[in-house]
């Protein structure tokens, strides 16, 4: 999937004005016919001119550049425009409702499309074939079809209107949550070899059009990356840096909320997620995948067999998914090694060493916060082994302590903040674990 930056100034609607105007004219002609009024020669001439303009417009790839419409027939394009019209041009939604009395929605039905496009019996049969799940309009996730029979509903697939209009799609896929935090590549504290692997992962996204489209390389799903390492070592931060590089949003998926004890529900939840995200300029991050992709043992009961089916379904959907997926785990050893062939990149996020911790302290303390003259970040980094997440929390805690005192950030603030961070888990911690910070811990601190 080649990344496409969002440029709000792109004149998408003006370029496609003739498309919407033609549909409005066809709707008007249908209303006249139903009321026994004949269509004037002037209107027919105007309609023919509009249709000629549409033919020219559709031959210009730039007009529909934001959607995968290459190779669609004229009838398929007409159906797509019919489905898009009430959402792209809400003022025309009333027209659909007036043409479909008794229906409580503004979307096109199969019957309305057939009437508006004046399709004969042969064309109507072709129309039904075009709407099958394995045909381009649905296979490319351009439209959705609800119901059956002549009054089945045709809608734009999720995100299609936002992509056409070149505006952000703010609706999260089902089961996913937008990660609001921002991160930049330069803020990523990782060794050069691990940064190189992440850069290589980005190549799969940037150059798919060349490798698959021009060089006939074998298409694969995703691409999929596995990020492993302890909590707080920067897995989500790296995913955010990738999202920032692409200009795409990052959505975190909690597999625990998708997995259901009821047979078949997990697959349905996964289908809804991937159907909504397919082909969208977004990144999906699946946390704690070891919970569902652990090592497989003997099948002792029906639930074990079903759990394996859930994993197989998840992996199948990831392989079919058109868009990057990042899987994270704190427990790499718990993953079945058979899954590794499905990943385009595997990145281990280690506990940061003293040099990396010094860089993290320097970046994560508020940039304009005044520091006491006695503070040496290299010494602090060497004194206490913390993850990046721990350092972020401690740095902010120290800043708030200093703000409450109305002073610079001093060692006493950092000592107390680090102590609070170390004791969060409830494990037994000794003041000696603070190194040089121990002597600066306030005497009133609860131990």
Automatic annotation (TrEMBL):
Residues 221-353 form the AAA+ ATPase domain. Keywords: ATP-binding, Nucleotide-binding. SMART domains: AAA. Transmembrane segments: none annotated. The keyword Transmembrane does not apply. InterPro entries: 26S_Proteasome_ATPase (IPR050221), AAA+_ATPase (IPR003593), ATPase_AAA_core (IPR003959), P-loop_NTPase (IPR027417), WHD (IPR054472). Pfam families: AAA, WHD. GO terms for molecular function: ATP binding. Gene3D superfamilies: P-loop containing nucleotide triphosphate hydrolases. It comes from the Bacteria. Belongs to the AAA ATPase family. This is ATP-binding protein. It comes from Haloferula chungangensis.
């Amino acid at each position: 999937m080649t990344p496409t930056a969002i440029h709000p100034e792109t004149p998408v609607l003006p370029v496609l004005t003739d498309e919407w105007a033609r549909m409005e004219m066809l709707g008007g002609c249908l209303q006249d016919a139903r009321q026994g009024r004949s269509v004037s020669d002037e209107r027919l001439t105007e309609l023919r001119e509009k249709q000629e303009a549409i033919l020219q417009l559709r031959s210009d790839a730039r007009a529909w550049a934001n959607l995968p419409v290459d190779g669609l027939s004229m009838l398929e394009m007409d159906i797509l425009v019919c489905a898009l019209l009430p959402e792209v041009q809400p003022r025309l939604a009333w027209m659909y409702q007036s043409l479909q009395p008794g229906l409580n929605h503004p979307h096109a039905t199969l019957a309305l499309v057939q009437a508006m496009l004046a399709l004969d019996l042969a064309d109507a049969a072709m129309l039904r074939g075009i709407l099958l799940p394995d045909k381009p309009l649905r296979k490319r996730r351009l439209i959705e079809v609800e119901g059956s029979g002549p009054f089945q509903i045709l809608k734009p697939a999720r995100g299609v209107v936002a992509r056409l209009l070149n505006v952000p799609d703010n609706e999260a896929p089902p089961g996913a949550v937008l990660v609001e935090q921002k991160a930049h590549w330069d803020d990523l504290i990782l060794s050069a070899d691990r940064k190189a692997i992440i850069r290589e992962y980005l190549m799969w996204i940037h150059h798919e059009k060349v490798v698959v489209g021009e060089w006939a390389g074998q298409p694969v799903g995703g691409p999929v990356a596995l990020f492993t390492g302890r909590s707080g070592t920067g897995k989500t931060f790296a995913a955010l840096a990738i999202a920032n590089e692409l200009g795409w949003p990052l959505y975190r998926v909690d597999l625990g909320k998708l997995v259901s004890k009821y047979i078949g529900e997990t697959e349905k939840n996964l289908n809804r997620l991937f159907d909504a995200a397919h082909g969208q300029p977004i990144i999906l991050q699946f946390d704690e995948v070891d919970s569902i992709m652990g090592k497989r043992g003997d099948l002792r009961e029906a639930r074990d067999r079903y759990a394996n089916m859930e994993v197989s379904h998840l992996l199948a959907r990831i392989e079919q998914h058109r868009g990057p997926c990042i899987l994270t785990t704190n427990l790499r050893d718990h993953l079945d090694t058979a899954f590794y062939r499905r990943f385009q990149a595997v990145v281990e996020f280690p506990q940061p060493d003293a040099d990396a911790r010094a860089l993290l302290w320097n970046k994560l303390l508020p940039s304009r916060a005044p520091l006491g003259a006695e503070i040496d970040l290299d010494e602090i980094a060497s004194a206490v082994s913390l993850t990046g997440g721990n350092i972020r929390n401690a740095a902010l805690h120290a800043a708030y302590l200093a703000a409450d005192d109305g002073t610079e950030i001093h060692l006493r603030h950092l000592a107390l903040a680090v102590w609070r961070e170390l004791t969060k888990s409830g494990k037994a911690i000794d003041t000696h674990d603070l190194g040089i910070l121990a002597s600066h811990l306030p005497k009133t601190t609860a131990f």
